[in-house]
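User: I'm new to structure prediction. If I give you an amino acid sequence, what do you actually give back? Let's try with this one:
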Amino acid sequence: MAFVRTGLIGLLLFVLMAGTGAISAQPSASDAPGVREVPIVGPIGPATSAFVHDELAAAAQANTDLIILRLDTPGGLDGAMRDIVKAILASSVPVAAYVAPGGARAASAGTYILYASHIAAMAPATNLGAATPVSIGGDSKPTSPAPSDSPDNEAEGREAPADDATAKRRKAVNDAVAYIRSLAEQRGRNADWAEKAVREGVSLSARAALDANVIDLIAANTTELLAALDGRRVDTAAGPQQLNVAGAAIEQREPGWQTELLSVITNPTVAYLLFMIGIYGLILEGLNPGTAVPGVVGAISLLCALFAFQVLPVNYAGLALIALGAGLMIAEMFAPSFGILGLGGVAAFVFGSIMLMDTDVPGFEIPFGLIGGLAVASALLLFGIVYLFLRSRREKIQTGHAGLIGSRCVSLTDFEHEGRVLLHGESWLAQSPTPVARDDQLIVTDAEGLKVFVRPAGPADTTIHTGNASARRPKPRS
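Assistant: Good question. You get back a string of structure tokens that encode the predicted 3D arrangement of the chain. For your 478 residues, that looks like this:
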């Protein structure tokens, strides 16, 4: 057992050293080209906002001339959209939002991002708009028309208070209108149409958007877009800049596997299913304490769902999952569950590490090899503990009444029903179904209180379990 433990600890230290070496061996980033194209495809969630934020920060550090946000999105979460807008407004690198390719759209949250960008462009056969905010749970009642200023309507309003759901929706719509109008005024675009896109959910084609001063230009592809932008001056957070991007090399940036994985979790359908699994898992664990599986799966699913709904920021969700994983692995040592708690802990640790350590800051990258190595080492340590636990269950019990069963003892006197025997160096009251002679070898079949039940030892009873020296070798009867 000590050898197995030493081996497991050595393996864990080896993985840690190998992972540390992997960190130091990370290659340095190459010089970035003049233009970076960053895709925003599909629903916008926390993973997308983190990806765009990191790309804008990396572009600023690399002195990139232009960032192209290629949009094809049906919308997304309000919090994630606002995080992207804040990153664009604070960017020292010019940002061009480009709805492409043909057939793409920038609906709902995509419209806000388009309005916030320094340059707004669309490819032919694309559209934008339908920016009315919608709650995740749906709206119970439609928005009521705005009240007029007549005294009759004011009196009627005092007599019939507005429904709470309608009032909340009106507040959300008014907040969204003010937000998109502020973006339109910041970039000098059509604020009246932006308000209609929020209040009435209207949309525009690329040509109509250009005619209505919603976008700056139409380009069939990125080469044509760069040619049209060359020489244009834009105002960024670092001051006015002139674009010199005609014929510039374009670096295609794609989301990493972490972003892709987190995007799957933040998909509305998956997030809702995770939320329900989490709730029902905790309920089932509460109704059947000790089952472990529903509780472990429910806790992990609920934390992932809270991250997907942006109730928990990505760093808090990752930290909570890592803490949950460590707690479950520790619980496995004190309350063995045949690996259920431990495996759940390893899974929570891996997901939490992916969320918490998703960074592209040079010098601070944490390779997946280290996370995977720690997970494998933890799993091996877990399996080692389970193996030792199962092996201990197969060993004979050495204490208590159960430890006496099967032990060999020696009769101290002749007796027919009850008498004294020498067991483990002590005199015990024994009961036998057959007559017993002095120095007979006996086997304990049961124990009750301070009395043991015995039977004569047979040829198959070869193992000696007593500490009495005289009983270690059967004596022939005279």
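You can read the tokens as a compact description of the fold. Here is one thing that stands out. The chain is about 50% helix and 15% strand.
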